[in-house]
Amino acid sequence: MRVVVLCGGASPERDVSLASGWSVTRALLELGHEVVPVDPAAEAPVLAGPLRPGDAVDGVAVGKEPPPPSDQHGADRRMHAALTGGPVLELLRGADLVFVALHGGWGEDGQAQALLEAAGVRFTGAGSAACAAAWHKGRAQAALAAGGVPVAERALWRPGAGEVPHGVQRLVAAGPVVVKPVADGSSVSVHRVDSLDRLARVAAEVRPGDVELMVEPFLPGREFTVAVVGGRALPVVEIELTTPLFDYAAKYQPGAVREVCPALVPDGFASRLRELALRAHRTLGFGGDAYSRTDFRCDAGGEPVCLEVNALPGLTSSSLLPLAAAGSGWSYTELIRRIAGLATG
Predict the structure, then answer these.
(1) Which contacts qualify for 271-279: CB closer than 8 Å, 24 or more apart?
(2) Longest dimension (CA), the chain
(3) 131: three-class secondary structure by DSSP
(4) String of b and e for 179-201 (b: at least 16 CB within 10 Å)?
(5) Numbered ranges of CATH 3.30.1490.20 in the chain
(6) What CA–CA distance (Å, rounded) separates 125 from 153?
């Protein structure tokens, strides 16, 4: 096939997305496809190609911190222009498949998918509605709770819109709590907070545009994640932390955490996590042609609580979805073949 890989983008997860995109490109070449990697937020969006099987592809390293925000308006404008007209749209329409490796805003919030749907382009992963449903953590958790998936108590707050709401104050008083943007990924700007003074400092440091924060109790138990590919839940991965939170630096620096797959847990507990991940996947509208990754953390009693559902989990060499795939006996290339196959039938 002729495949366009969309990666990079305009979000704080740009570096992760570029690393995913080049890893996907390498796998697609191994599968015999012609590939054009495209970063629709870049001044020169076509990164290489068309690449053909046998061509060399270099990887991209992910830094300890997300890239600093710069020219966000310009990047958003370039994204929209590239996906709605001109040579990039021609590339997309001329491809047999678009492999979406955009993480964060534009990719996981459904904006790119909505534009691809409008253009009649076939692409990998969930559609725009499911992505949007998962992206806003507050609304997603409300839907998950209604669907029978255990979630934590939470409160939302817009810094600068008046005093701290009573619900947030109560959670902090009972603390500690976790504070994070209600719409973001890769654990960007996630903080553990144990006082209102610390909460105020966190609110003052959030990235421009992070206008709404979610506050929820800090869960002291073990952390797990379960990927779903199509209608199949993959083996449970346990994330053994050396820090209180699985933040951006821990996720993308080799050796920062220990990730165990399959997790060393009783079979019944693993089955329960996999069933909950499937329920979360379906509750938010992910179909049999999509994939997702659901994150869990246990409370003090060892009960699993759903933290979030990721619509486009990372596909870097150190990402959790490829690790879960390896636990199923799939190589990285086989995982990419299966994801592409979900979209092409």
Answers:
(1) 272/304, 273/224, 273/226, 273/236, 273/304, 274/226, 274/233, 274/236, 275/233, 276/149, 276/150, 276/226, 276/304, 276/306, 277/226, 277/227, 277/228, 277/233, 278/228, 278/231, 278/233, 279/147, 279/148, 279/149
(2) 60
(3) helix
(4) bbbbbbbbbbbbbbbeeeebbee
(5) 155-217
(6) 29
- Say which amino acid occupies 281: H
> Does 2-123 carry CATH code 3.40.50.20?
yes
Contact 90, 40 (CB under 8 A): no
Helix axes 137-146, 128-135, angle to 10 degrees: 100
Question: Which runs of E-coded beta strand occur in the chain?
Answer: 2-6, 34-38, 97-100, 155-157, 177-181, 191-193, 213-217, 223-229, 232-233, 237-240, 258-260, 291-298, 304-310
What is the reported pTM?
0.90
CATH topology of domain 134-150+220-344: D-amino Acid Aminotransferase; Chain A, domain 1 (3.30.470)
Section 298-315 average pLDDT: 96
CA distance 259 to 164: 37
CA distance 320 to 94: 32
Tens-place pLDDT, residues 95-143? 999 999 999 889 999 999 999 999 999 999 999 999 999 999 999 999 9
Q: Which ranges constitute the DSSP H helices of 147-266?
A: 166-174, 196-205, 248-252
Question: Mind listing the pLDDT tens digit for each residue in 239-291?
Answer: 997 766 555 555 555 566 789 999 999 999 999 999 999 999 999 999 999 99
Q: Which residue has the tokens 């929820």?
A: 216
- Lowest mean pLDDT of 68-82, 160-174, 264-278, name the range: 68-82
Residue 180 confidence (pLDDT)? 87
- Kindly indicate whether the domain formed by 155-217 is annotated with CATH number 3.40.50.1970: no
Which residues of the chain does CATH 3.40.50.20 include?
Answer: 2-123
Mapped onto helix, strand or coil, the DSSP state of residue 125 is: coil
10 backbone dihedrals φ, ψ, rounded to 5°:
-110, 10
* The pLDDT value given to residue 186: 44
pLDDT at 93: 97
